[in-house]
Amino acid sequence: MWGQLNWCDSTIGFYHFNERATFEWVRAASWYRGLPLPSWRPGGKGEFNFNGTGMGDGRWHYLAGGCWMIRTSAIRALDWPDPRIQKMGDDTFLCEAIRQQGWKFRDNGSPGVAIDTESRRGEEG
User: Fold this and answer.
1) How many CB atoms lie within 10 A of CB 123?
2) Cβ–Cβ under 8 Å, residues 62 and 91
3) Alpha carbon of 11 to those of 7, 8, 26, 39, 107: distances in Å?
């Protein structure tokens, strides 16, 4: 998968409900393969001393929605989109699904279009 790399590193910004509910949702997904999820608690993404902080890696990486390319075979293998997704977080969860498979997503820089210049189309929750 290729697109403009972004990340959410704030628990307030990403856990629309709470961390526990988000983790339970991901762990129940057919694409979840058991890799440690992003968390600032030790062990987040398998890190125990991320950037020398004594914490885990809590960054949820994603390629900005609507501005990415992906192999059709990957979408089919993941049976994407996850039918449980309403709207918010779809790009973030797709990148987590890819990471869970051991696949890669790559930053190819700015797509040359304006991103996040208007209010959200979807609703939180």
Assistant:
1) 9
2) yes
3) 12, 8, 16, 8, 23
pTM: 0.80
Residue 28 tokens, joined: 């129940």
- Whether the CB-CB separation of 65 and 59 falls below 8 Å is answered with no
- For residue range 44-61, list pLDDT tens digits in order: 999 999 999 999 999 989
Nearest to 60 by CA among 114, 1, 19: 19
Q: Which of 115, 58, 59, 65 is nearest to 94 (CA)?
A: 65
Place of tokens 């210049």: 117
Both tokens of 11, joined, read 């628990």
What distance in Å separates the CA atoms of residue 58 and residue 43, rounded to the nearest whole number? 9
Q: What is the dihedral of CA 58, 63, 66, 67, to 10 degrees?
A: 150
φ and ψ at 98, to 5 degrees?
Answer: -65, -45
